[in-house]
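Pipeline run #58 for the internal structure catalog. This entry was flagged by the ingest filter as a single-chain record with no existing model, so it goes straight to prediction. Upstream metadata was stripped on purpose; only the residue string is passed forward. Reviewer on rotation: M.T. Logging verbosity set to normal.
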Amino acid sequence: MNGLLGWALAEVGFSVKRVSGGVGRREFGDFALGNHVVLLVELDGTHLVDTGMGDGLIDPVPLVEGPVSQRGFKYALEKISDGYWRFHNHEYAGALSFDFREDVADEQLFMDRCEFLQTSPDSPFVSALVMQMFVSGGYEVQTGRVAKRITPEGETSRLLENEAEFADRLAQVFGIQIAEVSRLWSRVVTRHEEFTSENESKK
């Protein structure tokens, strides 16, 4: 998403720099670098522009340390000791932070991480269904069978019970209608059962 946005901004005349971000670098170290395209755009100074975090920013923010507020959600930018910037997502987000430097990105690193995220069984985007969409007052999330609505006040969640409920949520909330909804629902249920079993075995 940020790749497409960056291309569009450059096409209409903005100065755009692609830099290498690492979602979860705070937890997983430099292995995370390259899993997120970060855009730095010159407006009246350098701005962080990001649509790639489905639960993060909507509007550009100046690249300066301090708190950021959008739509009632609280974020922050911090310059950390190793020369990286850290974007702190809001407290209800799925991914709580990403790190980046202002150096031009290593495009090969992006390609390698993209391959991993799209194909590896260890990738969260391969192992589970994940959908996020901004809506008035917050955003909607679908992770497997779990439907969530996130607002600045918190989150509400429920477990989808059947295929009809799943298909209705896809259509009404996310605007998605697919012919193979039965096959997808079957895989969602199977993965939910596997995930539940894995968590139980760890207790």
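catalog note: The helical segments are 2-11, 25-28, 107-119, 124-127, 163-172, 181-202.
catalog note: The radius of gyration is 18 Å.
status: ready for reviewer M.T.
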